[in-house]
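User: I'm putting together a teaching handout on how sequence relates to shape, and I'd like one worked example. Could you take Ribosome-releasing factor 2, mitochondrial from Oreochromis niloticus, show the sequence you're using, and then write out its predicted structure as tokens right after it?

Assistant: Happy to. First the sequence, then the structure tokens directly below it.
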Amino acid sequence: RCRLSCHVKRHYSLLPGKFSYWIHCRINSCVYRIRNIGIMAHIDAGKTTTTERMLYYAGYTRALGDVDDGDTVTDFMAQERERGITIQSAAVSFDWKSHRINLIDTPGHVDFTLEVERALRVLDGAVAVFDASAGVEAQTLTVWRQAEKHHIPCVCFLNKMDKPAANFCIESIRKKLKANPVLLQIPVGSGKNFTGVVDLLTSRKLMWKMKSMRDDGRVFEVKALDRSDDPDLLQVVSDARTALIEQVADLDDEFAELLLTDFSENFDAIPSNKLQEAVRRVTLARKGVPVLCGSSLRNKGVQPLLDAITAYLPAPNERHHDVVRWYKDDLCALAFKVLHDKQRGPLVFLRIYSGTLKPQTALHNINRNSTERMSRLLVPFADQHVEIPSMTAGNIALTVGLKQTVTGDTIVSSKASAAAAAHRAQNDNEAGKRSRECASVILSGVEVPDPVFFCTIEPPSMSKQADLENVLNCLQREDPSLKVRLDPDSGQTILCGMGELHIEIIHDRIRREYGIETHLGPLQVAYRETVLHEASASDTLDRTVGERRHVVTVELAVRPVDITSVGGSCELAFTEELEGQLSAEMKEAVENGVHSSFLQGPLLGYPLQGVSTLIQCVTIEPGTSPAMVSACVSRCMLKALRLAGGQVLEPVMSLEVTVGEDHLSSVLGDLAQRRGTVRDIQSRHDNKVLLATVPLAEMMGYSTVLRTLTSGNATFSLELDTYEAMNPQEQNTLLKRLSGLL
């Protein structure tokens, strides 16, 4: 396409054919030179700006993009450029000093946390970006927990060191993230006088002497520290390097042994390469987190960060996945993202764990038990893609032609390949006497959070209903955190999302990308229900359909369990006697009946949470169909739930507000009216940081109210904390309001 040719010429000065050949050679380089990393942080910490500088210094772009100008590479959606925020993750690939870096820039807003989750699922390392003036913020905690869940080694980058209030927030990382920061750099100067860093490994000073605001920072001065430097700086560096050596020795036995045997008389004589190797081992073992600093907007400190990515974060072959080893050299890949292109159809992002991927080949989807032909293979470069003839393990690919594949599916070369892997897994399972779960040859998928907001969506006319349904199906496939359901009573289409901004963006995309002017109903909170007491019930279904008689009797008990965890699931168990009596088919029918009841509580029809069900007895006459068993179980569950008494649970949010002291009392008064509970008030330079918990139902339109109260001089962030029982007065008000709506 002409657009692609122009893009390639603008950035690379290469013809498309030559560029494709060059890309193919680079992509299929040695696996130990590949780095699959993600950039993660709180909103406005500088992720996209840092990514933009990396692309520029690596030679991918010829001009420095700016978020405020709306011309960055990874924020290519119209909504992203208008709002100045990242909404969806974007993948880019570039070279840095003989290494191939596949980078995914992720959103920092809580409404789009699924984008972070599915990116981290397939990455090998991550760069956590911090605003040095703010330290660890609310969403920083969230993305850090996601990285820990996937056991991903991280590097910390303290950005915005040029801000007047910037500080070295090492203690914030240690206390709030429960991490072990390994300081590798010391800043030279602070605020506007921040001019560079000192590398503690080599004791060299890296200085960016900007002659004007237009200086791109590509050239910087590197020189060893000597006696002519500031004595205070020399002392700080000496103390910091000694502390670094001692810290690494405590974390790495091999390095400690080297120190004691060869450098016991003078620790400072340790070679920098030995110290770097030890820091790498500490990072890969997730015993420590390297910390660097800089200012991406001012073009300082990004090149050392790129060096740290290649030096300390793992290559694909240094990350071990039990399932992958059973495929040996056969193809094994995970679909982690789907996009829809009007010309090409579904574009599926794959992380290749083993084998080689080639276009015009048939691929087997284990999750769907289907085989599809992949027509084209592309390398993703944000919204521009380059076609290549093959791609090897360790890379991230973009495929065309997989129309049934969705996020979380495992892709292999054939059914025979999957069967061979299963056979190897079974042999390994028997030899090692492991649990049967280890024998699965399906890669673990992507965990999707439950939506917290919902509203109705209607087309402009009935003639557009079919088009709207098709659009919503495409958007759900792209974004699994978006749920669409049909209300059985009103027949309306219900849109469920992660927040106000999430639903607003979806609404805007339907209008812009698909040309349908839809109408949204008022936003409503996705409540949950639970039970108050333990209760038992029994039910018998006796029905004749045609010449066939169906008879089944069910006895079960329900009881409340802990509801404090976000998305706390309901539990189902059978008595030991029943476990051996029921056939697999009938057991599945019972489970279906219980799970269908979990989706609709007895009070208002909201999904249940924190309910444990014990199936005590199931008597089935011969000839009874599984569908009748499920129906009887559902009816019995409804009886038990009503006897146990219902309780509405509301989502409660963790709120963090940064505000000036002169507006603090106004914000506190407003929170009191919103049923908020203040947990702490901290000082951050000239501002106050208010930490509170507030019911989500009370946070509608809060950004507008806060802007009015503080004259626009405050920021806030929200994160789902837990579900809590509503007090009786609020629950009665909700019941009356919903009854009025119905």
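A couple of points you could highlight for students: The longest strand covers residues 646-660. Confidence is low (pLDDT under 50) at residues 1-22, 433-439.
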